[in-house]
Design goal:
Chain lengths: 245, 245
């Protein structure tokens, strides 16, 4: 973390005073190391050049915040669902931390109002919000420690904006997401499936390859064609996300 | 977490006194809620039936500990590598928390001496060690909180047993791992690859399907055949791990 005095909020659409007033509302507590919070909202496209020639943005904080978020959510779910097995816990955690849900949470929290970026918003551009939420979590963690971060997340983010009972019922439909993305971006999506009989377990095994404009974008396996398509779609969405960074 | 009085160490190869003497040595501090630590070493194959008819083992704790470990390692790397980008951080983190490395760490720490299981040890059986280390991390976290867990991990596990400089140089060779596994288990591994020319980016794109005894076990993509094979092998290893649970 650089300690020079470069103004990180230079290209912010709102002034420094308004930025911290809004941030204070989002956090519910006073930030100490303000620079960390400024950094959390700088998307890669608006990277800031420091006097030493290096560039800074929120990606390192996002790396950290992503892991802290996972830890807090895991703890929270572990205690709420004290009779459920790890399969259930893993599934519901992934419904909470998946891109789409994180983007929604970030917008509900108000992250979009503070974001500093130079990209046009489109379907994938919404990932900027979820990523900035993770970066903010990284900033809070470094500034105020684990327990404060945990309290912030559970009280202000999770309990206010997340309906666990609803989430238990939802299946994430990756196939619909990829088709929606393709329509918006005028691409053609094709699923190609095959099945083999698994002699050992006496059941059919399905493999699906997903192509976007005839280029392979992801493969998936499963005990049903639907399951294999879901896996392939999830991988393709990750790939699109990586390419769009 | 059940509060009844079932003896969780009934099928332990060592007595309760020896168990806690060894554990105390591994931890370097005194456990408070002892039952959590007992549970951390009970593999699924040695699940204990409680009076209410339910079974307990270390898998829930493993779910939690896995996430706590990721958070601690991310924090540690974030601070050590203060000039590296998130791509570097992600890569070195995955070298630390990958199955093989976790199993090694677990053995170095002495987890194997406390484990309670009813399975024969083989190549995959070593995952029991890494998983139990994660479960132990979950137990420490619940018993003593995040900071104590972090200090334990960094001082006693990471700094004593991990050479970061060496790790920076290593590439994880998933292909060799899957071939080694197949030889031990008398299975046949086959890689089937295809390439397409990516018009948009003007480069070749490789896809590899991996078959074990002619059943599809994983697919991978990449800019080289080697990269695609690595990805397919990594997925196949995950699948084998899931099937062997």
């Amino acid at each position: 973390m650089s300690k020079d005095s470069t103004n990180l909020l230079d290209s912010s659409p709102i002034g420094k005073k308004e930025f911290f007033a809004l941030l204070r509302k989002i956090l519910g507590f006073r930030p100490i190391n303000k620079r960390l919070y400024e950094l959390a909202f700088i998307h890669k496209s608006a990277s800031i050049k420091l006097p030493d020639g290096s560039f800074v943005n929120n990606e390192r904080l996002e790396f950290l915040g992503d892991a802290i978020l996972d830890a807090v959510i895991s703890d929270y779910l572990f205690k709420i669902y004290d009779n459920e097995d790890e399969g259930f816990l893993t599934k519901i955690r992934s419904k909470i931390v998946n891109r789409d849900n994180l983007n929604n949470l970030a917008e509900k929290v108000g992250i979009d109002k503070l974001l500093i970026s130079n990209v046009n918003q489109n379907h994938l551009g919404r990932n900027l919000y979820g990523n900035a939420l993770e970066a903010l979590i990284g900033a809070i963690y470094l500034d105020r420690g684990y327990w404060r971060t945990k309290n912030y997340l559970i009280r202000r983010v999770i309990k206010r904006n997340l309906n666990l009972e609803e989430l238990e019922q939802t299946e994430i439909d990756f196939k619909s997401q990829i088709i929606e993305w393709a329509q918006k971006n005028r691409k053609e999506v094709r699923f190609s499936s095959s099945d083999t009989f698994d002699q050992e377990n006496k059941q059919l095994h399905f493999s699906v390859d997903l192509f976007i404009d005839d280029k392979p974008f992801g493969s998936g396996d499963g005990h049903s064609k639907k399951e294999a398509e879901q896996h392939a779609s999830e991988k393709a969405l990750h790939k699109i996300e990586e390419l769009s960074r």
